[in-house]
Specification:
Shape: globular
Oligomer: single chain
Number of domains: 1
Strand order of the largest sheet: 1-2
Order of helices and strands: HHEEH
Number of strands: 2
Number of helices: 3
Strand content: 5-15%
Distance between the termini: 22 Å
Structural class: alpha+beta
Helix content: 40-55%
Length: 61
């Protein structure tokens, strides 16, 4: 859902498969304090789950 949104908006993003990259998984848990996905980082801000309103707020800033 999040990747579809970014593609639809023509936004660049980097997908990290935390199932295959344990180091990245640990980093995201440390940053977000969540083990669920997606964890989206926008300009140093963490969004857990697909929260369209919050993502749009961060992109507009």
């Amino acid at each position: 859902m999040a990747m579809d949104y970014f593609r639809e908006k023509g936004l660049a993003y980097r997908e990290i498969d935390v199932a295959e990259n344990r180091e990245a998984a640990v980093e995201m848990v440390n940053k977000s304090r969540q083990s669920g996905v997606p964890v989206i980082e926008i300009r140093g801000n963490i969004v857990v789950g697909f929260n369209r309103k919050r993502i749009e707020e961060l992109l507009a800033a």
